[in-house]
Amino acid sequence: MNRVHIKTYGCQMNERDSEAVAAMLRARGYRIVADEHACDILLLNTCSVRDAAEQKAIAKASNVLARKRRQPDFVLGILGCMAQNRGAALLDQLPDVDLIVGTQKFHQVPGYLDNLRAARAAGVPVGETIVDLAEEAGSQNTIRDHELADRQVTAFVSIQQGCNMDCSFCIVPKTRGDERSRPMDEIVEECRSLAAKGVREITLLGQIVTSYGRRDYTHTSGISPFVQLIERVQAIDGIARIRFTSPHPRGFKQDLVEAYGRLPKLCGYVHLPMQSGSNRILKAMNRPYTRERYREIVDALRAVRPDMYFSTDVIVGFPGETDADFAETRELFEACNYDMAYIFKYSVRTGTPAATMGEQVPEDIKEERNRILLDVLRRNSERRNATLIGTVEEVLVEGPDQTGRRFTGRTRGNRVCVFDAEARLVGQLVPLKITRASVSTLYGELELAGVGHLSGSTGS
Hints:
Elements: E1 3-8, H1 12-27, E2 31-32, E3 41-46, H2 51-70, E4 75-80, H3 81-86, E5 99-101, H4 109-121, E6 130-132, E7 154-158, E8 160-161, H5 172-176, E9 180-181, H6 184-196, E10 201-205, H7 225-234, E11 241-245, H8 254-262, E12 269-271, H9 279-284, H10 291-304, E13 309-316, H11 323-336, E14 340-345, H12 363-388, E15 392-400, E16 407-411, E17 416-419, E18 429-437, E19 441-446, H13 455-458
Parallel strand pairs: 1-2, 1-3, 3-4, 4-5, 5-6, 7-10, 10-11, 12-13, 13-14, 17-19
Antiparallel strand pairs: 8-9, 15-16, 15-18, 16-17, 18-19
Helix pairs in contact: 8-10, 11-12
């Protein structure tokens, strides 16, 4: 009874947490299996950003409990943000769940599973569900182990957890706790270890990644702790690219903007959450910037790197959002010319200030505003990708695509590419001539001396 499957919902932070839990479990003798139907233990690592995400995880758990009734020794655990948000109240809907573990207790999962297995092996009734939602000092330092796939060339590195921003729509401060940063030396050593294992691209992760170390380290010659960390990762042999997510506009001071011009490993791609283009709505959201300041940041970054790629987050239908407010959001959205965006219809999150605000926007209006921005985004993406046809882009070869017949990788601007190649090129930075483009994917041919067009060698 040691086969574990972890199903992850939500963001890259959740993916990284799941990977760390998997590595801890493997070190304890558990087997991590890809097929949930072949597991003895199913762990759902959950998301709470929107109610729909929680409902999806609850529905999944409800379905799994039918299996548990057939197999009494089967173990079901709920981890992460929904566990933290709902806690023991989940047992009203899911009374037979074995384990509910919050966001600061991931490292305790192996021990809890050991206890459950030992009790069942001895025929001892387990009793009540294990529920652990307590805060734990230093918990941010426990997300450090990696479960790398064969020849994996990209990796997430958690540098900071929690959030002190208190946006009025967001549940994250409740589910992730206060802002906490890992020691810089430990992060650099983790990145160095990953490079030694063949990782070429590092993505630094945090709830507000640009706030990294602001209470723990001093600014040096005007350089923030976050930029100091990027500089140290830049110096690691073997690391070819650096990305980060998710930042806050407040974190884009001059030192970070200038870093894009002087640190060649820092990719020319920025995820810059806008949320709204209306100053009135930004104030209601408790977002400490204006549309004018946001546009200044975009312009400053493009001045440093004219070919910069941008993605963003936008919420439509926030309480009180009028047609005029949305028109300002659309205008700024179009002006910033995003390459990618996560556009959300406002979702009430119980326990947040926005949940009790008046003037809730009807669903049909949210849907229409969502559709309008998605259409703008589609046109932007098509236009930007079309300009790349005939150009040569640097691509990091990551491995076979989903078909297994071709290979895939990403440009420095985070655009997915599909092309013919050979397995020996995995982990290499290669020049790719773009021959075709869709809304989300580029297609091309390698321009390598002695390699040429490789379709014959891949059978595609």
